[in-house]
């Protein structure tokens, strides 16, 4: 597997607080990878490390086989759309494209102008007069026209209305397919990731909890519901993700490659939101007292 991003023991510390710690991660080439987690989980820190805007406190990170920001050639391979899809309010769309051409040696001007025309945007219009969705599309155009191998986007649609979000994500999917881009996209909106991502990374409390191809993750995670049971009695090939109990019933989310044959369990599949929430719930599970099971 060729990794567009590889992290080993990666950590970033601000003062006494670790914003990211013990991060081991391989994001494979050719995927649209979604990075999801609660606010403060370390998503933006990881992305800023990936594009070379931060340097690690601990561990190592390689993007496209090189240290992020190691030189002009490496920087040219990575496109970045930061939070709030930043543009310059006083510059026109055409001026943004000219700036992109001056700053990026691999700039594809025909691609940029064609995309602006297909979006129905007036090149003479200033960015400050565009809607939020239009500014996001302009920022995406700048990222794509750079002709990167990896496009990194940090919460690009968080402030957009549902229609603008859908149009932005549709444009992202089309660009990834047409130009064979690898994409790393962070969001706290699981429904958006479900539309576009085929690879998932869940980051909670500054650590990677799970990562893998979406189809495989959904196929290997199950909800088990049945008579109350001590989690320690689960088979060794069933990795417990989270557990909840009532007086008579237990509900577990487990990860396993094997079939589940125990007739005591009602087994149901998880959707992507269920899976993400199960790993996020580990924050509280690890702080709860062990429950005694009455036999």
How would you describe the overall organization of this protein?
InterPro entries: AAA+_ATPase, ABC_transporter-like_ATP-bd, ABC_Transporter_VariousFunc, P-loop_NTPase. Residues 5-230 form the ABC transporter domain. GO terms for molecular function: ATP binding. This protein has 295 residues and is α/β, with parallel strands linked by helices. It folds into 2 domains: 3-205, Rossmann fold (3-Layer(aba) Sandwich); 216-285, no CATH class. Helix content is 32%, strand content 29%. It is built from 10 helices and 13 strands. The protein has a 6-stranded mixed β-sheet, sandwiched between helices. It has a 4-stranded antiparallel β-sheet with strand order 11-12-10-13. α4 packs antiparallel against α5 and α5 runs parallel beside α6.
Q: Share of helix among residues?
A: 25-40%
Strand adjacency order, main sheet? 5-6-7-3-8-9
Radius of gyration: 22 Å
Low-confidence regions:
284-295
* Helix/strand order, N-terminal first: EEEHEHEHHHEHEHEEHEEEEHH
| Proper CATH architecture of the largest domain | 3-Layer(aba) Sandwich
Overall 3D form: elongated
Tally of discrete structural domains: 2
């Amino acid at each position: 597997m060729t990794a567009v991003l590889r992290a080993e023991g990666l950590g970033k510390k601000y003062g006494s607080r670790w914003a990211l710690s013990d991060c081991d991660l391989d994001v494979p080439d050719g995927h649209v990878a979604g990075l999801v987690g609660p606010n403060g989980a370390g998503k933006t820190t990881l992305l800023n490390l990936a594009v070379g805007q931060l340097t690690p406190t601990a561990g190592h990170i390689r993007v496209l086989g090189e240290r992020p920001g190691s030189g002009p050639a490496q920087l040219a391979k990575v496109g970045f759309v930061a939070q709030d899809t930043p543009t310059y309010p006083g510059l026109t769309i055409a001026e943004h494209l000219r700036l992109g051409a001056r700053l990026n040696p691999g700039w594809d001007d025909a691609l940029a102008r064609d995309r602006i025309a297909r979006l129905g945007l007036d090149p003479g219009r200033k960015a400050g007069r565009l809607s939020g969705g239009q500014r996001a599309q302009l920022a995406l155009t700048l990222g794509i026209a750079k002709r990167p191998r990896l496009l990194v986007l940090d919460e690009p649609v968080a402030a957009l209305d549902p229609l603008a979000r859908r149009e932005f994500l549709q444009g992202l999917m089309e660009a990834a397919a047409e130009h064979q881009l690898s994409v790393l996209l962070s969001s706290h909106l699981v429904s958006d990731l479900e539309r576009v991502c085929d690879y998932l990374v869940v980051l909670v409390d500054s650590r990677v909890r799970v990562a893998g191809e979406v189809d495989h993750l959904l196929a290997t995670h199950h909800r088990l519901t049945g008579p109350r049971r001590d989690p320690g009695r689960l088979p060794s090939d069933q990795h417990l993700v989270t557990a909840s109990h009532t007086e008579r019933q237990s509900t577990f989310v487990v990860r396993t490659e094997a079939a589940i044959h125990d007739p005591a369990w009602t087994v149901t599949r998880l959707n992507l939101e269920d899976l993400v929430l199960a790993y996020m719930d580990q924050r509280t599970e690890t702080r709860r007292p062990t429950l005694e099971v009455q036999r």
